[in-house]
Amino acid sequence: MSHDVFDTSLFGARGQVGVVRGVGEIRARRPVLITANRETLLALPVDGIDSSRLTAFKNFCSPHRPKLILSTRRARWLGFQTSVPMALTVAAETSVERLLELVVDSEVDHTPDAEPAGVAAVAAIQLAKLAQSLPAVLAIQANRAGTAIFDPPLVKIEASAVQHCRKDMVRSLKVVGEAHIPLSTGTQTRFVAFRDALGENSVAIIVGDPDLMRPVRVRLHSACLTGDVFASRRCDCGDQLKLSLARLGETGGGIILYLAQEGRGLGLGNKLRTYQLQEAGLDTVDANTALGFDDDERDYGVAARMLEMLGIQRIVLLTNNPTKVDGLARSGIEITGRLPVEAPVNCDNARYLSAKAARAGHQLGHLMASLAEVSNSAVPRRAP
Fold first, then answer.
1. Band of pLDDT at residue 380, cut at 50, 70 and 90
2. 30 is catalytic
3. What is the pLDDT of residues 306-326, one digit of tens each?
4. CA-based radius of gyration for the chain
5. Helix, strand, coil content of the chain in percent (nearest 5)
6. 316 shares a domain with 179
7. Are 263 and 276 spatial neighbours (Cβ–Cβ below 8 Å)?
8. Catalytic-labelled residue, pool 53, 196, 296, 305
9. CATH assignment of the domain containing 304
10. pTM score
11. What integer pLDDT is reported at residue 90 of this predicted model?
12. How far is the C-alpha of 318 from the C-alpha of 336, rounded, in Å?
């Protein structure tokens, strides 16, 4: 039997294999090759870069200069009028500090010359997002660099495969384990774990014994380490999770889809970066876009596929977020109703919730009354 043929039953689709390996390389901070038509780009992630790595990449590119590829959102934040990612000129004397200033700082005094990025560069930004890295790469055309000298060889990814990756990840979803889990509240649940080709794990938490012949109450809940585990007061995630579990337990059961989408899809590290920007004065929406991300990077195709694999087509959605309703509906899930999840408002999350309501359209009917109470409680009372 010949072993020279690419066996899709063993490896999966060729393009998907390239993307999965590419994401692994980006997470490991290694360069990759991205091809589009006749263009091949050598791309190095900026996330985690240090002086020695920057110097090595500059030396490798010499006598040519690498470009700094920034997402459309970040380029707009820096003042460029553009609808595509931009390629900024990297001067020979550019330091790591200057590079990171262009990538993450909320205020930048001067920006270098730039030009619209090509298809391969756009794919490089998408790949960085899939890896939950900063959406910024250093890049050079591979025909200007001797990429064949790398040992081990560079991973090569097709730009078209990156564009279709999210749908491929949805199709790759598999059940990897399940078990009955009694909770400390006395609620009986069954956890069903799912994994995609990137190795991301999401969990369906089946509360009680829901009747699948009727619309099932479902909560889509993005993983939040700070809120769910450590009860952070900066967000309402942990409170929403507790409220949803309690409501499902009290009303005959339902399902919580616990999705691997920390920080609205940015990942934990980038979420903490947005917190730093919020501490400097930005709100939660601007903090995301300042780093080069969309306000919400989540894809609800995975949630829809999990529901389908569980045999659920009709649901009542527990959410304040209309984007979740739209995302599931576009994926073929019938939503027969919506139930709000009104978590407590406090002085630490009031600004965050206000931004979600005013700028992201979250339906927080209880917010105004709660804000008045928080404001009154924050005002020191005079002694009688």
1. very low
2. no
3. 999 999 999 999 999 998 999
4. 23
5. 40, 20, 40
6. yes
7. no
8. 296
9. 3.40.50.10990
10. 0.90
11. 92
12. 11
Q: Does residue 195 form part of some domain?
A: yes
SS3 148: helix
For 380, half-sphere exposure in the C-beta direction (CA atoms, 13 angstrom radius) is 2
Name the average pLDDT for the chain: 90
Q: Which residue has the tokens 């010949």?
A: 2
Nearby residues of 381 by Cβ (< 8 Å), 6 or more positions away: none
Count of structural domains within the chain: 2
Q: Which pLDDT belongs to residue 382?
A: 41
* pLDDT of 6 above 90: no
Active-site position among 73, 74, 264, 298: 298
Residues 94 and 141 in one domain: yes
Decide: 249 and 185 in contact? Cβ < 8 Å.
yes
pLDDT band per the 50, 70, 90 thresholds, residue 206: very high
d(CA 265, CA 271): 9
Q: How far is CA 234 from the centre of its chain?
A: 19
Domain enclosing residue 244, as ranges: 172-378
| Mean pLDDT across 270-287 | 95
- The answer to whether residues 99 and 111 touch, using CB atoms and an 8 Å cutoff, is no
> How far is Cα 195 from Cα 175, in angstroms, rounded to an integer?
7
Please, which pLDDT band fits residue 260 given cuts at 50, 70 and 90?
Answer: very high
pLDDT of residue 377: 54
Query: β-strand 86-89 against 114-116: which pairing, if any?
Result: antiparallel
Question: What is the amino acid identity at position 128?
Answer: A
Two tokens, residue 155: 């991973």
Instruction: Please indicate, yes or no, if residue 383 is contained in any of the structural domains.
Output: no
Secondary structure class of 328 (helix, strand, coil): helix
338 is catalytic: no
Cα dist from 36 to 1, 155, 161, 316, 336, whole Å: 33, 14, 10, 43, 43
Q: What digits encode the pLDDT tens for the residues 218-233? A: 999 999 999 999 999 9
